[in-house]
């Protein structure tokens, strides 16, 4: 097979400035409800004993709430300042995050196909490339010159189609070879060449555009992954977490029924065992798989509305194929892309945006929760009549 010629990457002007930063085990973030710690378990895997430790820690030192994020991380909420160091030690000792802050950040920055080593159609070298990339990053201070949310994707394909992973620099499996994509430029390479190409691209980015990310063409419209709910390859099953929120008792119950789970993007996890719990979405057609909500006024000082309560209120009126995003403010933390209906909290209700995102809020009318519920119900009835 003839390979594409080797050529340098370049960076277009189509870039986006990163705002904010990513919390971690070693970088707790203060929120309205206390400090928040984000965990990135190695390989996304949690054993039963680790789940018990997580549940106990969240209940004893926090609000007893753990969030599962869109990127497949965990967030322990409501920690008091005096208990943060204790929690860091407990969770690190349990192997739920790395004891080294620099290594933890490296692992947070490398995304790979969640079904690696489970899906027989996923490229067998996926995990090896990700591991080698993390080792290369550990030996090079490159991440210090890149913005906090800059990430690398190792996309092995298979059950999850190529393109499911959204990252600044992505390596995607294409038959026997890999395509490394950086902005609008690509290289077709052997597996052994992928890590060097990614490092070269990242170094060029750090030098040419410090503090800025490469705009991903899918980032603004990244779709959720409801097809990860239900049957998965090799006898595994995927579960969604309702509104991404687990309580300590939920985690204990999961731990008592499984040997391990593997976190999935899209606020979920997978396990070989069959589970049935109110906090879990087990059917990909369940409307709760299509509803996204931030923590709202309980956990965020920027939020204007109780988004968790309101998301459940609106769920009654939705059809299964309507994607709804309920955001407490314009930041859109729960879902950065477009939704069929996006609600943005204001002082007296929500701005209602159809087929858009939170950034459109200023040009849309404010409606009360009850009026929005009536609107959604009428819209669904009209849709049903047209069918």
TrEMBL record:
SUPFAM superfamilies according to UniProt: Nitrite and sulphite reductase 4Fe-4S domain-like, Nitrite/Sulfite reductase N-terminal domain-like
UniProt xrefs under Pfam families: NIR_SIR_ferr
Entry-linked InterPro entries: NIR_SIR_4Fe-4S, NiRdtase/SiRdtase_haem-b_fer, Nit/Sulf_reduc_fer-like_dom_sf, NO2/SO3_Rdtase_4Fe4S_sf, NO2/SO3_Rdtase_FeS/sirohaem_BS
Cited Gene3D superfamilies: 3.90.480.20, Sulfite Reductase Hemoprotein, domain 1
Keywords (A to Z) from UniProt: 4Fe-4S, Heme, Iron, Iron-sulfur, Metal-binding, Oxidoreductase
Domain of life: Bacteria
Keyword Iron annotated: yes
Coiled-coil features, chain-numbered ranges: none
Segments forming domain Nitrite/Sulfite reductase ferredoxin-like: 28-91
Record-given protein name: Nitrite/Sulfite reductase ferredoxin-like domain-containing protein
Organism: Candidatus Kirkpatrickella diaphorinae
Lineage: Bacteria, Pseudomonadati, Pseudomonadota, Alphaproteobacteria, Acetobacterales
């Amino acid at each position: 097979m003839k390979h594409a010629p080797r050529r340098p990457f370049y960076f277009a002007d189509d870039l986006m400035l990163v705002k904010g930063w990513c919390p971690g085990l070693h970088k707790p973030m203060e929120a309205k409800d206390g400090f928040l710690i984000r965990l990135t378990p190695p390989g996304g895997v949690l054993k039963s004993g680790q789940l018990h430790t997580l549940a106990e820690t969240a209940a004893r030192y926090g609000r007893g709430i753990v969030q599962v994020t869109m990127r497949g991380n965990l967030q322990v909420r409501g920690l008091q300042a005096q208990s943060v160091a204790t929690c860091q030690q407990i969770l690190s000792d349990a192997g739920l995050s790395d004891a080294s802050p620099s290594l933890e950040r490296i692992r947070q920055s490398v995304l790979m196909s969640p079904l690696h080593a489970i899906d027989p159609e996923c490229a067998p070298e996926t995990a090896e490339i990700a591991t080698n990339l993390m080792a290369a990053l550990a030996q090079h201070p490159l991440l210090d010159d890149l913005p906090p949310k800059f990430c690398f994707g190792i996309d092995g394909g298979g059950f999850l189609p190529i393109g499911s992973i959204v990252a600044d620099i992505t390596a995607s499996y294409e038959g026997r070879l890999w395509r490394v994509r950086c902005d609008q430029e690509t290289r077709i390479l052997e597996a052994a060449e992928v890590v060097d190409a990614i490092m070269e691209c990242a170094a060029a980015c750090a030098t040419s555009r410090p503090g800025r990310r490469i705009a991903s063409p899918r980032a603004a419209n990244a779709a959720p992954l409801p097809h990860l709910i239900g049957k998965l390859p090799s006898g595994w099953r995927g579960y969604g977490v309702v509104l991404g929120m687990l309580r300590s008792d939920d985690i204990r119950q999961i731990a008592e029924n499984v040997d391990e789970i593997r976190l999935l993007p899209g606020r979920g996890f997978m396990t070989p065992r069959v589970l049935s719990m109110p906090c879990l979405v087990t059917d990909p057609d369940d409307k709760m798989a299509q509803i996204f909500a931030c923590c709202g006024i309980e956990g965020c000082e920027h939020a204007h509305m109780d988004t968790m309560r309101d998301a459940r209120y609106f769920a009654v009126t939705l059809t299964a194929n309507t994607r709804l995003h309920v955001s407490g403010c314009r930041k859109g933390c729960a879902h950065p892309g477009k939704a069929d209906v996006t609600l943005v909290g204001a002082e007296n209700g929500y701005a209602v945006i159809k087929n858009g995102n939170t950034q459109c809020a200023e040009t849309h009318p404010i409606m009360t929760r009850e009026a929005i519920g009536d609107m959604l119900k009428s819209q669904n009835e009209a849709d049903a009549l047209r069918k």
